[in-house]
């Protein structure tokens, strides 16, 4: 694991010394938007008009942030419009790699070995972490965005006129409710598990642990009367929570020490998770081999033996009975 400094790769773990053992996530730097007419989005430059075959998505199947983009690509019928390269699950001294002998598709565009080479193709003196997902523009040869929360918003509407898929996971009348839930879920749960797992001081870890489980309790309460996070309509907020929940019992409970309880032990969170898992097209975006292997094998300061646990055995296909709620 490392980062680029003026275009040079440096193998370096997160620096938690400056923040008393606390993990602080860097903001994504590349923030342009694909739009239906090519006009600029909320940030960045214009010129990224939605077109079939023009954009390429780089993902890890292990990564919860990249997973969101794969889910939207599926739900929004974008598979024939946006092709994908998948990195290997192991992220070691060279960061994300395209090793075809290790569960990667290879880099379909440039056939480079490392994801950091994709970042330096975009900007030869780039400085920052080399993260996935990345949305690449083949026409102008540059990165459109490396921020998953914005890539899913582009997928939600920029291509509708081409795909005729009008499913709206961020409908205008629910925007402010979705934004509120997203904010709560992001800080306390999506990023909350990382703040537990990457904490390097006991006090920092315990603080995040309490925050995380208080938040899960609050969501459990909400799901006793609401079928989904925002009332009775499935929205972006649900898919953003889903990618953390599906990794929770397999990885975060053990590897990130989020072990007050499992998602399986929450009656509503667990049945809600099963409903989302069983949603048409979703199970095929979930890859437990990549998920478990990535975390347990890559974070050697947490798991120096790199032994990957064999369990847990959970049947996400058993009935969810969520139609009784709401
Ligand atoms: N803000 C980014 C975060 C993406 C992110 O942190 N991805 C992780 C994988 S789960 C990564 O690539 N980490 C590499 C690193 O931090 O060096 C997003 O949501 O798109």
Automatic annotation (TrEMBL):
Please provide, in alphabetical order, the Gene Ontology terms of the cellular component aspect for this entry: cytoplasm
- What residues sit in the active site? 63, 194
Q: Which UniProt keywords apply?
A: Transferase
Q: Which GO terms describe its molecular function?
A: glutathione transferase activity
Put simply, this protein is called Glutathione S-transferase family protein
Q: What Gene3D superfamilies does UniProt report for this protein, alphabetically?
A: 1.20.1050.10, Glutaredoxin
Keyword check for Transferase: yes
Domain GST C-terminal positions: 171-298
Q: Where does glutathione bind?
A: 96, 129-132, 147-148
The cross-references to PANTHER family, in alphabetical order and at most eight, read:
GLUTATHIONE S-TRANSFERASE OMEGA-LIKE 1-RELATED, GLUTATHIONYL-HYDROQUINONE REDUCTASE
Pfam families recorded: GST_C_2 (PF13410), GST_N_2 (PF13409)
Q: Which residues form a coiled coil?
A: none
Task: List the SUPFAM superfamilies.
Answer: GST C-terminal domain-like, Thioredoxin-like
Site (Lowers pKa of active site Cys) found at: 252, 295
């Amino acid at each position: 694991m490392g980062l680029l400094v003026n275009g040079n790769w440096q193998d370096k773990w997160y620096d938690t010394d400056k923040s008393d053992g606390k993990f602080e996530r860097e903001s994504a730097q590349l923030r342009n938007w694909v739009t239906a007419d090519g006009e600029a989005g909320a940030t960045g430059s214009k010129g990224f008009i939605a077109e079939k075959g023009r954009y390429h998505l780089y993902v890890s199947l292990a990564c919860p942030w990249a997973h969101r983009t794969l889910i939207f690509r599926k739900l929004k019928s974008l598979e024939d419009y946006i092709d994908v390269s998948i990195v290997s699950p192991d992220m070691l001294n060279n960061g994300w790699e395209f090793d075809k002998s290790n569960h990667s598709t290879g880099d379909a565009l440039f056939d480079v070995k490392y994801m950091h080479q994709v970042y330096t193709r975009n900007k030869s003196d780039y400085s920052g972490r080399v993260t996935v997902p990345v949305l690449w523009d083949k026409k102008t040869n540059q990165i459109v965005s490396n921020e998953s929360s914005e890539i899913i918003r582009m997928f939600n509407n920029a291509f509708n006129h081409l795909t005729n898929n009008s499913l709206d996971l961020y409908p205008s009348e629910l925007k402010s409710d979705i934004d509120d839930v997203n904010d709560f879920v992001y800080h306390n749960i999506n990023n909350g598990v990382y703040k537990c797992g990457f904490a390097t001081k006991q006090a920092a870890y315990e603080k995040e642990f309490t925050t995380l489980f208080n938040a899960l309790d609050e969501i459990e309460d909400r799901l006793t009367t609401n079928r989904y996070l925002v009332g009775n309509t499935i929205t972006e907020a649900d898919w953003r929570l889903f990618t953390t929940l599906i990794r929770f019992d397999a990885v975060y409970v053990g590897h990130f020490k989020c072990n007050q309880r499992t998602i399986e032990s929450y009656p509503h969170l667990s049945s809600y998770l099963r409903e989302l898992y069983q949603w048409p097209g979703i199970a095929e975006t979930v890859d437990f081999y990549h998920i478990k292997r990535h975390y347990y094998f890559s974070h050697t300061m947490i798991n120096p033996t790199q032994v990957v646990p064999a369990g847990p055995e959970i049947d996400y296909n058993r009935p969810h009975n969520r139609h009784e709620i709401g």
